[in-house]
From TrEMBL:
MF annotations from Gene Ontology: acyltransferase activity
Alphabetic keyword roster: Acyltransferase, Transferase
Domain Choline/carnitine acyltransferase: 30-612
SUPFAM superfamilies named among the record's database cross-references: CoA-dependent acyltransferases (SSF52777)
Family: Belongs to the carnitine/choline acetyltransferase family.
Protein's UniProt name: Acyltransferase ChoActase/COT/CPT
Length: 691
């Protein structure tokens, strides 16, 4: 019960003050749309996905809801929302946390970072220590509230998600999960060869405790220690694999771990870590292998955020999606990638400034002297420690069977990549088209070209212009998109095909703008359904929530999201339904990257069809604009004059009715205080002069 209370209290927690949260009090609440407007949008969204007969039945269900239960539920929702930061937030969080399947492939998305622009720094230890150090600067700015707030085209965005980005763990119970924030976290956890290590990175005064070189020395000591463990023993103590189990099974095994004093302390160290760093021993040779490794790898912890660095220096981020959306993590990734470049630039020009204005790099020896001057009670040990486990028989068997089930899960899924380099944003805007809408219609054309039909498609629209805003669902299949794909694959003239494309793009762009204003249908109807479930547990649901139209909308066959930044090479996520596709894409200036996943449907063939469409539509557009052919000079001038259109700020979310996390102000983690010391837990590693 205490955990549930902490969970609810976290929803009411509102970060404020400083530069970071200076706009929070100005942000409006997410609007609750008029019921009749939502129902009209709902019918419009499902009509292209239904037969005439099915749609008539759905119209009857909607009419019944509007005349009977709907207005009463709407009134209850308006009353419920009066003292809430967001009317959808609690329902959204609960749906994520009640999710009982493994979080691997189902909830955790991934980013693949671009390589460090200085090739000599693409060494595993150097790259990892650089990313860790930049992350500490980001966290320091966040703690000091000096991190610049997000602003989109002059409009402030909600920054509340950043309070859940670090030091937060998802804890399983027999009845769903809860989010446990480590409000006093000062350490990180590093994984190497399935073994876990930890060391403190902030001192008792909240200052960065290590230099980049000292972090690198710790990582080398960890790799050296992990290499000594016999191969036959590595899998036996790979406790991290337990977190990939179904939630109830992981809850049972977690209770077994906590029954042992050593394991309980070790678990506390991991739960309260700021973030996890995975030093993978693999060296992916293809972009597909790299993407798969970042998405699901071999073992995963469901900690809030993980930095993954492969042996060859390739790096990425895997994050638990409950509490944060892709836009929040994208800001973090963009900042730390920029900081690593600026730090290198500073070695060339000492006047180069950091993006973290408040961060003052201090000599670590001087810091330690200052700490020691306050007495031995505050002495500080920077050495890493191996986290040790008492492998009882139930835990040993749990690890063994969890690894088997995880291997099954990984083998049931595939990831394929298309890095399309023929054109990108410049060409699309030169054609006077919205880049995001253009790519969404490309998905529709590719799927129709392969399967001969249009199916439920999801794209998130960011709603962070509102207090505690997350996303609204853009349903990309419209009457205009269906008309476009049917026209495109007909014998119609190219002119007619392009005109139908333009109408579909206009429809999608208008839909995106509505959703960004909180005027979609999915979130509103989902909140009404959740409210009904709370009030009428044993009563038959209104017909609208059992109708085939609601089921069609909830079965996202093509889950997509645009999450781009020059710091990223790729990003992706698993399919949200067993027979669907998950497609992450990044629209770059002169290219578009796609990472598509499915449970072994024709993923590669879908991307090949997509590539062919992109090339064919380019030829059509060029012939229309330049009937006499296009010269190199015209191409350059067109790129220089390109005026980017509104892309609806589409950022990552996975298209399912899952929700988000909460931050507790209690300061407790799973029954123990986060202020409890962790520095003495585990075997202390020795550093060498050469590290």
């Amino acid at each position: 019960m205490a955990n549930v209370k902490a969970h609810k209290n976290a929803l009411n927690f509102e970060p404020s003050g400083g530069e970071t949260f200076r706009y929070q009090e100005q942000l409006p609440k997410l609007p609750i749309p008029e019921l009749k407007d939502t129902l009209a949008r709902y019918l419009t969204s499902i009509q292209p996905l239904q037969s005439v007969e099915e749609h008539e039945r759905s119209k009857v269900a909607v009419k019944d809801f509007l005349e009977n239960d709907g207005p009463k539920l709407q009134s209850k929702l308006l009353t419920y929302a009066t003292d809430k930061s967001s009317y959808i937030e609690e329902f959204w969080y609960d749906s994520y946390l009640q999710h009982s399947d493994p979080v691997v492939l189902n909830l955790n998305p991934f980013f693949v970072l671009e390589d460090d622009p200085t090739p000599l720094r693409n060494d595993q230890v150097i790259r990892a220590s650089s990313l860790i150090y930049s992350t500490l600067k980001f966290i320091d700015a966040l703690h000091d509230k000096t991190l610049e707030p997000d602003v989109f085209r002059g409009t402030p965005l909600c920054m509340s998600q950043f309070s859940r980005l670090f030091g937060t763990a998802r804890v399983p119970t027999d009845n769903g999960c809860y989010m446990a924030p480590g409000n006093e976290s000062r350490h990180i956890v590093v994984m190497a060869h399935s073994q876990s290590y930890h060391f403190e990175v902030f001192d008792e005064f909240g200052e960065t405790a290590l230099t980049e070189k000292e972090i690198a020395a710790n990582l080398r000591a960890i790799l050296r220690d992990a290499a000594r463990i016999p191969v036959s023993d590595i899998a036996k103590t790979a406790i991290g694999v337990l977190t990939t189990e179904k939630r109830r099974n992981w809850a049972r095994l977690r209770a077994e771990l906590k029954s042992d004093p050593t394991n309980r302390q070790s678990l506390k160290v991991i739960d309260s870590a700021l973030f996890i760093v995975c030093l993978d021993h693999v060296e992916p040779t293809t972009i597909e292998d790299l993407s798969s490794n970042m998405l699901c790898g071999t073992y995963r912890l469901d900690q809030g955020l993980q930095i993954i660095v492969c042996k060859n220096g390739s790096a990425g981020i895997n994050f638990e999606h409950t509490g944060v959306d892709g836009h929040t993590v994208l800001r973090y990734v963009s900042d730390i990638y920029t900081d690593t470049i600026l730090r290198f630039a500073k070695t060339i020009n000492s006047q180069t400034k950091s993006i973290f204005h408040s961060h003052k790099q201090k000599d670590s020896a001087a810091n330690r002297a200052r700490r020691d001057s306050f007495g031995t009670g505050l002495s500080f040990d920077i050495n890493p420690r191996r986290i040790e486990w008492n492998m009882t028989e139930p835990i040993t068997l749990g690890v063994r069977y969890a690894e088997t089930r995880l291997s099954d899960l990984i083998l049931q899924n595939e990831v394929r990549v298309l890095e399309f380099n023929n054109y990108g944003k410049y060409f699309i805007t030169d054609m006077k088209m919205s880049p995001d809408a253009f790519v969404q219609m490309a998905f529709q054309a590719a799927y129709y070209g392969l399967y001969g039909k249009s199916e439920c498609t999801y794209e998130p629209a960011m709603t962070k212009t509102f207090l505690h805003g997350r996303t609204e669902a853009i349903r990309s299949v419209t009457n205009a998109s269906v008309n476009f794909v049917e026209t495109y694959y007909s014998k119609a003239a190219d002119h007619d095909k392009l005109e139908s494309l333009r109408k579909a793009l206009k429809s999608h762009t208008n839909l995106t703008r509505q959703c960004a204003q909180g005027l979609g249908q999915d979130r509103h109807l989902f909140a009404l359904e959740c409210l009904w479930n709370r009030m009428n547990k044993d009563t038959k649901k209104p017909l609208i929530f059992t109708d085939s139209g609601w089921k069609v909308l909830g079965h996202t066959m093509i889950s997509t999201s645009n999450c781009g930044n020059p710091a990223l090479r790729l990003f992706g996520f698993g399919p949200t339904v067993s027979d669907g596709f998950g497609i992450g894409y990044i629209i770059k200036e002169d290219g578009i990257s796609f990472a598509a996943s499915s449970k072994h449907r024709q993923t590669e063939r879908l991307l090949k069809t997509l590539e062919k469409y992109l090339l064919d539509i380019q030829i059509m557009l060029q012939k229309e604009k330049y009937p006499g052919g296009i010269s190199q000079r015209q191409r350059i001038l067109a790129m220089e004059n390109a005026d980017e259109l509104n892309n609806g700020y589409s950022y990552f979310d996975n298209g399912e009715n899952f929700g988000s996390d909460k931050e507790s102000s209690s300061g407790s983690i799973d029954g123990y205080l986060s202020r409890s010391p962790t520095r003495k837990v585990g075997k202390r590693l020795m550093l060498r002069e050469t590290d």
